[in-house]
């Protein structure tokens, strides 16, 4: 696929400038990878270093840092985007917000979007994203259309991608350099779009198809009117083989929204990359490895100290095992004893190691995510919910950034893919021109909204108490609207609630039934009264005549 050489050169210069901007972070990321996740980030090393570390890790002697990072990542996954329960809702403002048909449609859209996420690899990729965010302070996930599962997510690894951001400090440019096998390049981009080198290796077959090809990939705003992709697209992406500078690319494509999410834990100034809790815990993690090593060395020297032996025992068999015997010709001149005595302060060293481990876990917020499992007795559900709310409230600023930089663009991207694929129900006429907003219903969001319903509960409780002495207080609140607001705040789905029109009709029908019952009861009471009056003895009445006639007959 051919593009202009000038456009290609501009993309290469963008790549080079982002590489310069990333360089100061390289060594810090290597340290984090060495001491926390050494296996998955070998591309932060040279090929020779990666080969040496393929069989063993020389840095981690105590895995507290790795376990603490995984605990935080898992806790955030469960607390923010749990696959087991809905974690977002769609809503609109204005007159449509209270329309029952609109709310039913929004609920159906939510259901379909959550189904697409569950059926794809979205949650698997999110788990990796959380771990990258916790350890490196920066994560990335690409979201593409997929014929089979609607969407397909990829996690570019730290060390192979570059980021740049706009004036609002949102990532709008993404570059990546990675390797694919020859057969993967041909399968993904088509043989006709590959270079002569790749086509030749493909035709040769055999081991040649397993040759690594370095690919460069750039996603950027579609500002330029160079005709690379139509101007109606907001973003564009281009793939090309590294080293090719003549305008031959593997693929070019336009997007209505950026096809990826790139959250940062915490930013400083205009930095495109963030820092996370692992950066704060790195010094403690390194200290923990050193103390663990020194403790092991001390125990080893205590149990098996270095020995000072007589020259008469040189090249002669010696037994240093417990109960062993060594024979020497001259017992006075022969002998062995420890070179020095090691007195290991085992208690103090163990206590200090525990202190360091505790600091590491606190830096990774583990005390918040494990408080429920650490309870000595089973507490009430209310206390458990309160503890869950507390742990996420402490991460409030991080969650706010994560919603803005990860969840918002992810939902917008998936919604756009489903909309273009005709996978959403037709919207009601009232939705024409309405703007859809996202409301998160994770543990934190639900807890925040639960605070909003507390005044309603207190108001109705107080009104019930005052009604006994001041009945007019019951006319202040609108029970139906208050209860609707309460249900919406605690996340009751629209399909489980009646529309206002249907509710009014049912109320009218109930009033009519009550009135009919009252009328029937009144009629029955009148009928009974008439029957009683007809049998009442009054002088000279019918009953008296019948009595007289009866008597005369006798």
Q: Estimate the helix proportion, in percent.
A: 40-55%
Overall 3D form = flat
Secondary-structure element order, N to C: HHHHEHHEEEEHHEEEEHEEHHHHEHHHH
Unreliable spans: none
State the strand order across the main sheet.
4-5-6-7-8
- Compute the CA-based radius of gyration: 38 Å
Number of helices: 17
Q: Kindly state the mean pLDDT as a whole number? A: 82
- Termini, distance in Å? 127 Å
Task: Determine the strand fraction and express it as a percent band.
Answer: 5-15%
Number of strands: 12
Oligomeric assembly: single chain
Largest sheet descriptor: 5 strands, antiparallel
Judged by helices, strands and strand pairing, the structural class is alpha+beta
Summarize the structure.
With 554 residues, the protein is α+β, with helices and mostly antiparallel strands.
What does this structure look like?
The termini are far apart. This protein has a five-stranded antiparallel β-sheet with strand order 4-5-6-7-8. Strands 3-2-9 form a three-stranded antiparallel β-sheet. It has 17 helices and twelve strands. The chain has helices spanning 5-22, 26-35, 47-52, 64-80, 100-119, 122-136, 182-189, 196-204, 277-303, 346-363, 366-369, 381-393, 396-420, 443-466, 479-489, 500-534, 542-553; strands at residues 88-92, 141-146, 150-154, 161-165, 171-181, 212-221, 235-241, 251-255, 260-261, 307-309, 336-338, 436-440. The chain is of the alpha+beta class and 554 residues long.
Question: What are the main properties of this structure?
Answer:
single chain; 554 residues; alpha+beta; five-stranded antiparallel sheet; three-stranded antiparallel sheet; 12 strands; 12% strand; flat
């Amino acid at each position: 696929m051919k593009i202009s050489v000038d456009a290609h050169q501009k993309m290469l210069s963008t790549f080079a400038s982002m590489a310069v901007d990333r360089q100061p972070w390289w060594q810090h990321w290597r340290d984090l990878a060495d001491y926390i996740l050494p296996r998955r980030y070998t591309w932060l090393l040279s090929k020779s270093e990666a080969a040496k570390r393929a069989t063993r890790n020389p840095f981690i002697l105590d895995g507290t840092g790795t376990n603490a990072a995984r605990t935080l990542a898992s806790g955030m996954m469960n607390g923010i985007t749990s696959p087991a329960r809905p974690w977002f809702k769609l809503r609109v403002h204005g007159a449509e917000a209270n329309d029952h048909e609109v709310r039913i449609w929004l609920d159906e859209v939510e259901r379909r979007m959550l189904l697409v996420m569950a059926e794809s690899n979205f949650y698997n990729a999110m788990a990796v994203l959380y771990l990258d965010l916790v350890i490196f302070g920066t994560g990335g996930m690409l979201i593409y259309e997929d014929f089979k599962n609607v969407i397909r997510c990829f996690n570019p690894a730290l060390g192979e991608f570059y980021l740049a951001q706009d004036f609002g400090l949102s990532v709008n440019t993404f570059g990546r350099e990675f390797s694919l096998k020859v057969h993967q390049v041909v399968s993904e981009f088509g043989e006709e779009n590959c270079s002569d080198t790749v086509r030749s290796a493909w035709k040769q077959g055999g081991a040649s198809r397993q040759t690594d090809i370095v690919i460069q990939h750039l996603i950027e705003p579609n500002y330029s009117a160079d005709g690379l992709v139509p101007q109606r697209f907001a973003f564009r992406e281009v793939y090309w083989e590294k080293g090719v500078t003549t305008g031959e690319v593997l693929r070019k494509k336009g997007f209505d929204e950026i096809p990826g999410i790139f959250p940062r834990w915490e930013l400083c100034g205009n930095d495109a990359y963030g820092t996370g809790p692992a950066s704060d815990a790195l010094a403690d993690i390194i200290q923990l490895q050193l103390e663990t090593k020194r403790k092991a060395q001390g125990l080893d020297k205590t149990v098996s100290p270095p020995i000072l032996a007589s020259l008469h025992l040189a090249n002669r068999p010696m037994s240093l095992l417990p109960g062993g015997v060594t024979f020497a010709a001259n017992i006075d001149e022969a002998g062995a004893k420890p070179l020095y005595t090691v007195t290991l302060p085992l208690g103090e060293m163990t206590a200090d190691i525990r202190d360091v481990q505790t600091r590491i876990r606190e830096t990774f917020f583990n005390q918040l995510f494990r408080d429920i499992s650490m309870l000595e007795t089973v507490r009430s559900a209310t206390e458990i919910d309160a503890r869950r709310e507390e742990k996420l409230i402490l991460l409030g600023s991080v969650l706010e950034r994560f919603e803005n930089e990860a969840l918002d663009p992810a939902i917008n991207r998936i919604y756009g893919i489903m909309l273009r694929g005709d996978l959403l129900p037709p919207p009601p006429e009232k939705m024409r021109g309405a703007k859809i907003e996202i409301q998160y219903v994770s543990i934190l969001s639900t807890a925040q909204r639960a605070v909003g319903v507390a005044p309603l509960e207190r108001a109705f409780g107080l009104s019930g108490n005052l009604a006994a002495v001041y009945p007019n207080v019951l006319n202040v609140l609108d029970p139906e609207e208050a209860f609707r607001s309460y249900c919406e705040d605690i996340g009751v789905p629209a399909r489980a609630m009646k529309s206002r029109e249907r509710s009014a009709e049912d109320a009218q029908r109930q009033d009519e039934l009550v009135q009919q019952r009252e009328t029937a009861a009144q009629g029955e009471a009148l009928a009974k009264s008439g029957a009683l009056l007809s049998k009442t003895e009054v002088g000279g009445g019918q009953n008296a005549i019948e009595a007289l006639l009866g008597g005369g007959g006798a």
